[in-house]
Amino acid sequence: MGLVQTILIVFGVIAIAYAAAHFKLLDERVGDGLSDFVFMIAAPLLLFRTMVTADFHGAAPWQLWIAYFTGVIVAWAVSDLAIKMIFGRDNRAGVVAGVSGAFSNLVFLGMPLMLGVFGQDGFTILSLIVAIHMPIMMAASITLHELAMRRDGVFEGDGHFALVVLSFFKSLLRNPFVLGILAGWIWRLTGVLMPVIADSLIQTLASVAGPVALFAMGMGLKKFGVSGHVAASLVMSAIKLFVMPAVVLAAAWFIGLPPFTAKIAVTSAALPAGVNSYLIATRFGTGQALASNSMVMATALSAITMAFWISIVTHIFG
User: How far, in Å, CA of 135 to CA of 21, rounded?
Assistant: First the structure.
């Protein structure tokens, strides 16, 4: 399947779901239910099966992680500075801006896109990023938010940070993605072959993760919508869609990532921010409109920018 055709299909599903929600053909609770199915069952099973069966030879995980998270650090810092220096927001809003400019939608949009454009090998490399992405991003968000509260003079007490850290680790160990990845690695280390019936069952459920995730995402975009001042969100979207993949591209080239791995790293970095940025903003009680606007606008714009970046990496890395 060609690149343009794949992107049209991916964003076509999102558009159909958005229209279904907009014209009230489906209740928004349907979107919530589909999101729960992907989050709790389909995506964790897909990640579990990938960890068990994939051949990671040549994926260069440490180099991949260094290249990708170099882009995360730069995009986060630029977003933080931009929201504070250009738009005069406080340090806590800077954390939300950082999340909006650096937290890629690797699961709901990344999974189906990688499978469609690069196949199972591409998804295998993506799963190496997913394996550490959420824990690192959540830990960074919590830590930087606590520091921002101190700087803004609204720190809630000496014991607050310890409670937040404890809550983070508890939620992390209950996260279905983390559990799916850990279970997959544990099974892989045992060396036991997956029973045929179990593998077929898991594959049946996991195989629908991509299209269902796209549909749930489309309905979610209608639910969140765009409100308030959009200029700051456009800047965050531009940083996410252009600055971050450009930095990852430079880092991948400098480090000497294998060509196929480099293509996956840059494409992953070019993904728009997902719902996690909004959830983090809601948890912190600031920047909800910024996160929501950035997510919706960046997702819409990424229909064009994804084709641009995939074409660039294909030209550079073959």
Answer: 31
Q: Can you tell me the mean pLDDT for 89-106?
A: 91
In this prediction, residue 305 has a pLDDT band, given cuts at 50, 70 and 90, of very high
Residue with tokens 């993904």: 271
List the alpha helices (DSSP H) in the chain: 3-22, 28-37, 43-53, 61-85, 91-102, 110-117, 119-152, 160-174, 176-190, 196-206, 209-224, 231-238, 244-255, 259-269, 275-284, 288-317
Whether the pTM exceeds 0.70: the reply is yes
Average pLDDT over residues 259-282: 91
Over 60: is that where the pLDDT of 158 sits?
no
- For residue 83, with 0-12 CB atoms within 10 Å meaning exposed, 13-18 middle and 19 or more buried, which class applies? buried
Single-letter amino acid, residue 248: V
The phi, psi pair for 86, rounded to 5°, reads: -90, -40
